[in-house]
Amino acid sequence: MKHQHTPPEVVHIRHADGVEYWGYEPKTGYVPLDETYLARASPGFRNLNERAREKARDAHLDKCTTIKKVSVPRYLVNTRRSLPGKDGHRWTAAFEDFRAGALALLPVCELFSNAEAGCDLLATVLAGMRCESLREAESGFRAVVEIRSTAPEIEETLTTLAGAAVTRKKWKNGRIKRLAVLDWRTKPGGLPHRIQDFSRLKIKVKKHPTLRVPVPYIDTVALVMGADSAQLREAAPYLENAAVLLLNCGSNDWGGRRLRTSELAEYDPEVVKGLDEERYSVAALLCAWWAAEEDEVTWARQIVVEAKASFGKPDSRYISIQLDPKLLNKAIRHRVLCSFLDWLEAEGLLAGEELECYRATVKGVYDPEPVEEIPPQYAEDPPVFLRVMRNLVASKKIAGLEEPFRKGDKLLGAWRTISGECFLVMPEDGWKKAYSKAARADKDVDTTFFQRDHWESELQKILAEAEAIKVPSSGYRYRYDLYGTGKRDSTYVVAIPAGLLTEP
Predict the structure, then answer these.
(1) Where a domain ends, among 303, 338, 366?
(2) Looking at the domain assignment, is residue 469 inside a domain?
(3) 392: exposed, middle or buried (C-beta count within 10 Å: 0-12, 13-18, 19+)?
């Protein structure tokens, strides 16, 4: 009697974009019907063109016995429709809950003393809620933030943020489980984690072992901790359409925003506390934001258009082919954050006055006012000289009109009346030291002039021509009996009209 082969058994998993097939083999268990499988089942499969490979796959499936058909929802809503109460009762989220969520979420902008870090975190979470449509509009966009920090406060902060964005772990009566926190760290001797440890669809088939396959993270938030490069590569296809917060992970090419340790040095624990206390309200708010746009694709395209427009128009002869991916990513996050603030106001959840400070913070981070260029200032310029001397007069002690001025006194100079006019009179050597020190302390002043030999003489010539100092009838160095010794002709001084030192 001839041996009869049992037809291959297959599980069909229908996704929104197509069908995923898993074959069952008694010796090896479940295996995906990928090219490796089909190459074993159909000799010469790898040498076929695309159309022929599809026909060969369909022919093989016709021979198979379908033992299970399941479908996976495209979107797994991040929170339940009702909020839990302390007394065990649940209620549908109302206006007050959405408002409470907004008041707890927006302070994330000010979570760190560096506002850019907080704004980037919040913008990334918001973009994650609509990540699929944003990536459809701009394929290179990734809602990713990468952080390296061993501070327990940072881990607590990110865990709280992810837990406030996603409060649900199970769907379809537990058949689907997806965790918002993917902790890849293992204890010494422990087995490494796989993506299905954090996200899985459990399929039960009679007389067969349970099949567990990963489900993608779409329009949600995931905190990934301690994953190495290989683990990130395994998880990448399942995380590309979600906001991903990477904490102490291996190298990757996801192109996210890397937050430096210095940007996270100081944080506000009250913001984290508020997020934790209002996590269900925050999740409800983000869910409402996710569902608010009837035509999310059009919204995403407009976001990308506005982001690209922010770079201005290139030379009329050229058309931009590609913008800097990091700058474009930043511009998209900016527009998403602005769109969220506008939505809060349009829904009446927060008034314009309440949003004003957040809009100012966001603008300061992503679209700051251009800094007016200060023309170069040189130590030898008479206006610079007078400005520096005014500051010295305000900070240094000066002898009065009738007070004596002696060598060794810790005085800048003395006020003296010369020919009916008041002057600040300083010994030439003392002025030289005081002025060079004060000018060098001013970061806006170019002091290369002081590198010249006998610069003090050259500067006095310049000041004499500008009538900024008193000069004799001939020459530029002025002598005055500042010490009251009767030896006027032996004391060189710098005498500045008092009127020039009191002008603004």
Answers:
(1) 366
(2) yes
(3) buried
Indicate whether 372 belongs to any domain. Answer: no
Determine the structural domain holding residue 463 and report its residue range: 377-502
Give the C-alpha distances (Å, rounded to integers) separating 275 from 79, 91, 358. Answer: 15, 20, 17
Mean pLDDT of 49-68: 90
Percentage of residues of the chain with pLDDT beyond 90: 69
* 371 inside domain: no
**Residues 52 and 131 grouped into a single domain:** no
Alpha-carbon gap, residue 39 to 33, rounded angstroms: 10
Tokens (6 digits) for 239: 């995380």
What is d(CA 320, CA 167) in angstroms, rounded to the nearest whole number? 42
How far is residue 348's CA from residue 102's CA, in Å, rounded to a whole number? 11
Clarify whether residues 51 and 96 are in a common domain.
no
Cα separations (Å) of 301 from 233, 305, 334, 366, 449? 28, 6, 14, 20, 56
Mark which of 333, 366, 399 sits at the end of a domain: 366
63-107 pLDDT, tens digit per residue, is: 899 999 999 999 999 999 888 877 778 888 899 999 999 999 999
Whole-structure pTM value: 0.74
Question: Do the beta carbons of residue 390 and residue 499 sit within 8 Å?
Answer: no
Q: Place 314 in a pLDDT band, splitting at 50, 70 and 90.
A: low
Instruction: Of 424, 495, 427, give the one whose Cα is nearest residue 464.
Output: 495
Report the domain count for the chain: 3
Q: What is the pLDDT of residues 461-489, one digit of tens each?
A: 999 999 999 999 888 899 999 888 887 67
The token pair at 339 is 């769109």
